[in-house]
Write a structure and sequence with these properties.
The structure is a homodimer of 143-residue chains.
Chain A: H1 5-17, H2 24-33, E1 38-40, H3 41-47, H4 57-69, E2 73-76, E3 83-86, E4 94-98, E5 104-107, H5 110-122, E6 126-137
Parallel strand pairs in A: 4-6
Antiparallel strand pairs in A: 1-3, 2-3, 4-5
The complex binds manganese (II) ion (2 copies) and zinc ion (2 copies).
The site of one zinc ion (ZN) has 7 residues of chain B, from loops.
The structure holds a DNA duplex (30 and 30 nucleotides).
Amino acid sequence: MSKHVKEMGALKEHLGKHQLKFTRQRELILDAFLKQEHITAEEMYHQLARKDPHLGLATIYRTLNLFCEAGLAQARHFGTQTQYDNISHKGHHDHLICTGCGKIVEFENCDIERLQEEVASRNGFTIQTHRLELYGLCSPCRQ
Amino acid sequence: MSKHVKEMGALKEHLGKHQLKFTRQRELILDAFLKQEHITAEEMYHQLARKDPHLGLATIYRTLNLFCEAGLAQARHFGTQTQYDNISHKGHHDHLICTGCGKIVEFENCDIERLQEEVASRNGFTIQTHRLELYGLCSPCRQ
DNA sequence: TCTTTTATTGAGACGGTTTATCAATTTCAA
DNA sequence: TTGAAATTGATAAACCGTCTCAATAAAAGA
Ligand SMILES: [Mn+2]
Ligand SMILES: [Mn+2]
Ligand SMILES: [Zn+2]
Ligand SMILES: [Zn+2]
């Protein structure tokens, strides 16, 4: 019996609502995706290279984008390639990224979020989403 | 006599320090750039299409990237194309972006910046740069 | 179960954006 | 004025992700 029963259920629910089908490929990709915190389509492609059935890169992209629509993933653009962030078992969060070793640390900060709302309303905006990324050096990378 | 004397001087200083040359193209592109708040390479290419000498797209890209190195510009990735942000006469700032009409509002908020530092140090990081973008609807776009 | 409809898949073509290449030209210090 | 060195413009190439399409698989209906 597969792990990830809850997330598999969430996916199936989304599929049902949109007359999409539950396929072997989607199951395989979800299983692999849920073991990661952040992953690119290319990385997942290589990780699943020897599985049966063989998974095409286009399918990986399509499926990760599907997970975004289903609320299981979120696309982020830290570097050159899109990172798919596994948000299935956590809420909104932002990131600290080490420019030395590439380490990514997730964080949440309500005070910052509240101040963002203030800035927005002061300018007549209603926030839909936001992106906050802090780039710097982690402790080991500073020697 | 050209405007932008101060910025032209800043560019020349950077060129001098890196054994780069002051060319007619760089002068033209800087003059056009300083009239903008945010602009893409493509937009600038079309804007300068009828100038003499003719400016190649590659030169526009190279020169805008040079401005980034000289501290006059900063590359931002709001949408599909890179936006070059004119930071010559203002310090660091962040952005509110309307998903309805594309309007971009700049803002600064010291309290947010301070909280960012706190988050970083709590995680053993030293911040080098950061990116904060708030996406939402401006007042006219909400009707 | 068998049939039929509809969605999905994988391969590769394609598109948009940015950078690399390179011969010709320009800059600028000597 | 000369000549080494940097710059330029045209365009090829790289890169990443999406689109196309014929073959296949899923699932709803009989
Ligand atoms: Mn994350
Ligand atoms: Mn700006
Ligand atoms: Zn590090
Ligand atoms: Zn608007």
